[in-house]
Write a structure and sequence with these properties.
84 residues, mainly alpha, 3 helices, elongated, binds fe (ii) ion
Length: 84
Amino acid sequence: MHYVEYHLTREEKFMETIGYPELERHKKAHENFRKVVFDLVHHIEEGELHAFKEALAMAWGWLVGHIGKVDKKYGEYAKEKGFI
Ligand SMILES: [Fe+2]
C-alpha cells in the first residue's frame, strides 16, 4: 500500500511537472486503482483467499493495461517535449 501510494504520487508529480495534458484522466485511473488495492489489502489481511487471487489478477492487468499502455503515453509526451 505504501509503495503504491509512493509510486502513483511521484508519477502524478512528474506529469504535473511536464504539463501533461492527460493528467486529470490519468489521476482518475490512479484513484480507482488505489481504492481497489486498499480495499483488497483489507480483505487479504482478513485471510480471504479470493481477495489475494483478485489482487494478483488485478496487478497483472495493471502491468499490461496501465503501465504498458497508459503510462507509456506520458513517456512519449515527455520525450516529444524534450523533458527526457
Ligand atoms: Fe500511471
